[in-house]
Every structure is written in C-alpha cells, then in structure tokens.
Structure prediction request, 294 residues.
Amino acid sequence: MRFLFVDRILYSVPGERINGIKHITADDHYLSQDDNGRFYFPSSFVGETLGQLAAWNVMKSGNFTKRPVAGVAACATLYRPAYVGDTLLLESVIDSLDDVVVQYHSIARVGNEIIFTIDGALGPLLPMEDFINEDEVRRQYAELDRPGEWSNVSSMSLESLNLNPQRSATSFSFDAILSSDPGVRLSAVKKISRAASYFPDHFPNKPVLPMTVLLECQLNLAREFIKRAAFEKSYVARELRRIKMNEFVYPGDVVTCSLSVKSQDESALVLSFRNEVEGKRVCVMELLLVSDVS
Prediction:
C-alpha cells in the first residue's frame, strides 16, 4: 500500500532530467477497473509517478535538504489508461530550478506509445525535515538508483494472467452528493481520514492529502456528472487544465467540491472544479472531455 510508485531510476542528471520505470502489476494496491472489467492504474497516479520522478531529481540536486510539493500544472493530457501488464517508461525534464521552486514537464510511454504527459508543472521547494527524515529519503533514493537502459527493460504490454478476479478496485470518490442540477452543476463532499493508506508516505512528519488523490476523485465525480446529465453524446476525459493547489488538506478536514459546466459544443465539454475546506479554496482545475467516437 506504499504511495511511492517509481520502481527504478535508470538515468539522472541532477537539475536537468531523469528517466525511470514503473511496472503496473497485480501487486499494485491502487488499481481501478474500467467498464470492461480490466484493471488499470488510475490516470492521476500516472501523473503522481511522474511528479515523484521529478522530485527525486530535485531532491538529489539539493542534497536532500528540500523537497518539491504539488503546486501548479498548466496541463496534464490523458491518452489512454495504464493497464495491468504495462511497463511505464517515465521521463521528467527540469525546465528551471532554484532554491524556491522547480518547473518541469514529463511524459509516460508504454513502448513507443505516449499515454500521459504533464506540461508547465510548478512546485515550491520546502524544508525536507518538515515532511520526512532526510536519512530516510536518502535510503529510499539509494534503493531506486540503479542506472540502466530502457532497451534492457521489458516495455511490452502483457495480458495479466494472475490478477484475482475477485479483487475489488480501489475507489477514489467523494463520500456523498450534496446537490445536483443535471447537465449544469454538481456538488459533493469528502471527509479526509487519517486511516487512509497513503498518509504514511505523504508524509510521515506532515500528513497531507496528495493532490493526485483529489484529482482522481474529481475525475470520478465528472463521470457521475456525465451519468446524471444523460447527454446525447458520450464523453471521455482528455485534459486536466489550470490545476492549482492553494493549501494543504489535512486529516480531519472536510472537502467540498463544486463542479459546473464552463463550455460545451459538438465535440467537447469543459468542466470547472472548485474545492474548499471551511469555505477556503484549496484546489481548482478544469477538465476537458471530448466526444467518444469509439
């Protein structure tokens, strides 16, 4: 149930770029299930994996005295799910880095196929000791740092044979719908519990809700909105835009999310999200959905 997703660092130039891999297997705790019953790694967590990869580079560059935290992303593009049996080839490029903030972009592939990208990601750098013991982070990095070539790593997609068919998918959703105006707006609430399995890694000294968990909850809320709206067209999520995390969300907080239609035409639907804790904005984003022609 670890919330650390990079399996191996293959290549890294501190402050410049880093490559790594993640195998999606039946051993992964955080798996969702599509309408056809196939298990996949949640899209937001592919973004989390790329963010963690960039963070390893930045932390190494700063001798593990500071760590980046999620802040802003201009755009994250979802091309297809990462299914059990896939190996993700991960790459993060550091566009700029100083003592205060890092900016980077990232890409995840399966073989030569691009499945997820992040552009314009910006993360403030905060003291490592506020979040986790420095020696522990050094130990984690040493476990991952095993240079090699992508060509020597299996990147083919393999059909899973060993996934327990009785296994239940992990749910990332809001707890309850507060109000619904089908096709117009939807609001929901989520209580944040210390019992959640991601808090020990995010982080031991300062447990905070991972932004990507909140993003995945919003993606699932969008699916609920589409279901209730009963549009003539079917839609699939394509881009998360203008993502901004304003404040940390802690165990014990209650998050209220408001979703509304920003625009809609023949080919696309744009939804706007605003998340608040005690009336204070903590996270906003827009979601572009495109008409599903399959």
Remarks:
- The CA atoms of residues 161 and 182 lie 40 Å apart.
- The radius of gyration is 19 Å.
- The longest helix spans residues 43-61.
